[in-house]
From TrEMBL:
Superkingdom assignment: Bacteria
Organism field: Streptomyces humicola
InterPro entries linked to this entry: HAD-like_sf, HAD-SF_hydro_IIA, HAD_sf
Protein name as annotated: HAD-IIA family hydrolase
Family statement: Belongs to the HAD-like hydrolase superfamily.
Molecular function via GO: hydrolase activity
Lineage of the organism: Bacteria, Bacillati, Actinomycetota, Actinomycetes, Kitasatosporales
Alphabetically ordered keywords of this record: Hydrolase
Keyword Thylakoid found: no
PANTHER family hit by this protein: 4-NITROPHENYLPHOSPHATASE-RELATED, HALOACID DEHALOGENASE-LIKE HYDROLASE DOMAIN-CONTAINING PROTEIN 2
Residues spanning the signal sequence: none
Length: 259
């Protein structure tokens, strides 16, 4: 493997890396503490668009992980940044929670179901037939279809939950229109995050627990990639993919000394 520049900044996924099913992964608190003490730029990433960065900061703090609000980057924020670049001051019909609606309000978007520029699909635990029907009709009438992330399922203590990608597939089947997914593995989310912290891909590492989103996004954005085995990917799964992470480690605890 080609020699890379020393790691000067870090991006890390949240679920499966720092926390797992609502509890912190052993060593995650020390990793975040080391990052903050080092002064190196870093972001905690999540494809989940339900929560605002302030919500996530409070959630992580209750688990003993002190991550400043400004160091949290969600697919909702990335989606808002994309829409602001594409069509500033536009309109959108949103299926999602506060994390997404707040991000769109903050860029000056008007949320409406009257001839919106976009239908924006995010994560929610209350998908309704009425809401999906309205989204389908708006897309059929010309609204552009955006989704925060392609994850088909999400974790819960009871097992897998249908996520944005699965619901997007339903809408696509009904409309014939594919959404543009902004979140991982789209490298757009990673590059926008790098810009937020003033980092460069050549000297940044990405830590994740999924080959198909975290590692792929890091790879396509030109970063060094670390796969941890505390989430959805097991050691036997790695060779099933045509690409590889730079390194596979058991958990985030194995990376503390690299910071």
């Amino acid at each position: 493997m080609a020699e890379r520049k020393p790691i000067e900044s870090w991006l890390t996924d949240m679920d499966g890396v720092l926390i797992h099913e609502g509890t912190p992964v052993p060593g995650a608190d020390k990793f975040i503490k080391r990052l903050r003490e080092s002064g190196k730029p870093f972001l905690v990433l999540t494809n989940n668009s339900i929560y605002t960065p302030r919500d996530l900061h409070a959630r992580l703090a209750r688990m003993g992980l002190d991550v400043p609000v400004g160091n949290i980057w969600t697919s909702a924020l990335a989606t808002a940044k994309f829409l602001d670049d594409q069509r500033p001051g536009g309109t959108a019909h949103v299926i999602g929670e506060a994390g997404l609606t707040t991000a769109l309000h903050d860029i000056g978007y008007v949320l409406t179901d009257h001839e919106p520029d976009y239908v924006v699909l995010g994560e929610t635990r209350t998908y309704s037939f009425e809401a999906l029907t309205k989204a389908i009709r708006l897309i059929n009438n010309g609204a552009r279809f955006i989704a925060t992330n392609p994850d088909e399922t999400g974790p819960s203590a009871e097992g897998a939950l249908p996520a944005t990608g699965s619901v997007a597939a339903l809408i696509t089947k009904a409309t014939g229109k594919e959404p543009y997914f902004v979140g991982k593995p789209n490298p757009l989310m990673m590059r926008a995050g790098l810009n937020v912290i003033g980092a460069h891909s050549e000297s940044t590492a990405m830590i994740g627990d999924r080959m198909d989103t975290d590692v792929l996004a890091g790879l396509e954005a030109g970063m060094e990639t670390f796969l941890v085995l505390t989430g959805l990917t097991g050691p036997d799964d790695v060779d099933r993919y045509p690409f590889r992470p730079s390194r596979v480690v058991n958990s985030i605890a194995d990376l503390i000394d690299l910071v």
